[in-house]
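Incident review: delayed structure delivery

Summary: a single-chain prediction request sat in the queue longer than the usual turnaround. Root cause was a stuck worker, restarted by the on-call engineer. No data loss occurred. The affected request and its eventual output are reproduced below so the record is complete for anyone auditing the incident later.

Affected input:
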Amino acid sequence: MVTSTLPTPARTVKVRIAVAVAPDGKWNSCGWGNDSMTPSEQKRRNQEIMELAIDVCGEGEGEGEARYWLEVELPVPTVIVPTFTPTVEGA
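Output delivered after worker restart:
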């Protein structure tokens, strides 16, 4: 018999995703995370990420797209370790 338990997530990660929606309904999202950046580096990275979302959805800067930041905290996955219980049957 094989059993496994799902451990409770001990850590979480904050995810921030840039989303751009064009007037015609086309949209794109872009995200990237790095906790080791300074606040000024993070600000510059956020601008780059939003620009990527805007460019790929088909609109240029300032051409009517809506811009959003989606933020969510997600559990960091952990390894599930199965527990094996051998059984012996008579031959």
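Verification: The helical segments are 39-56.
Action items: add queue-age alerting; document worker restart procedure.
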